[in-house]
Amino acid sequence: MTRLALVVDGVGRDYTDKKKAVTALSEVSFSVGRGEIVGLLGVNGAGKTTLLRIIATLLTATRGRVLVDGVDVAADPKEARTRLSVVFGGDRGHYPRLSALDNAMLFGSLSGMPTRSLANAARDALASVGLLDVADRSVNTFSKGMKQRLHLAVGLMARPALVMLDEPTVGLDPLETERLRAAVAKLPGEGIGVLLTSHNLQDIERLASRVVILQEGRVSHDLPLDDLVEQSGGGTTVTVLSSEPCHAATEATEASGIRVLVSEPSADESSWRTEFEVAEWTRDSLRVLAQLWPSGVIRDVRVQPVGLEQVFKHLAGAESGASG
Ligand SMILES: Nc1ncnc2c1ncn2[C@@H]1O[C@H](COP(=O)(O)OP(=O)(O)OP(=O)(O)O)[C@@H](O)[C@H]1O
């Protein structure tokens, strides 16, 4: 049986703050398979940073255990570190005057890779993040996105079982974001497990097949992305742009499972924007919606399945409501 990239088993962590015990994590359990991308989500203070630091061997757990590729991070942190790469990103962490190839080779040699295989491994790693054609350019000529992909390439030099990515697309423009995502999307094909945290929920929506949500130090959800969306009400968001406001959202619309979410002038104020949540999209839905305006005033209709962003807002709202 292949080993899991990551097993988090009943992990708890207490801090002492002004002599009072603070429980940041209690009984956290989940796993990441090799070849799987798992998104880790949580509102601020839910315990993500604490958990990532424990997995990265930077902090010890008060209870429970963490295995990276079968190695217990507390019992053998040195060995565990050879099997995981943490990509926190940012502008720092490279030798700016060296080329991308030299940077990758240098970090490969620091991780104990034999000298004769360094150049080939570095070229492979750069190729997998789309930087092979600029391998000989010095890093201080790189854009932010290229540096971020170089971080990932360097992380791949040690052939890790687990890659942890924390906010990988922060500060990147849309094109660079897409390139970074494309590089991450390749990792499962190489048998690597990925734990991805990001406040950009589109990263998680686009890349992860499973989502683990931490709430107040516990795992509140651990399930495939599609199931999460479905469990939280599923549905479809419909946005209608019209030349006149929609006045007639009535009991009949509500009875058809259609709820008005937003009704306001559009950003450029040239039209009116109404957003609806449609519980179950049927042939009838469009007919019911169309009846809300006099003929000829609808300019555009956009239909979108409910995304992770809405689901997460819904869950986070429920949590803060519950905790007062
Ligand atoms: N060194 C510390 N001493 C005391 N309490 C701490 C310490 N570090 C974290 N905590 C507390 O533990 C809880 C979890 O913190 P953590 O930073 O892990 O959350 P997070 O989900 O990463 O939040 P954020 O997204 O804001 O970083 C919080 O209540 C926090 O106040």
Automatic annotation (TrEMBL):
SUPFAM superfamilies: P-loop containing nucleoside triphosphate hydrolases. Residues 6-241 form the ABC transporter domain. Keywords: Antibiotic resistance, ATP-binding, Nucleotide-binding, Transport. It comes from the Bacteria. GO terms for molecular function: ATP binding; ATP hydrolysis activity. CDD domains: ABC_DR_subfamily_A. It is a peripheral membrane protein. Gene3D superfamilies: P-loop containing nucleotide triphosphate hydrolases (3.40.50.300). GO terms for biological process: response to antibiotic. GO terms for cellular component: plasma membrane. It is found in: Cell membrane. Belongs to the ABC transporter superfamily. This is ABC transporter ATP-binding protein. It comes from Streptomyces phyllanthi.
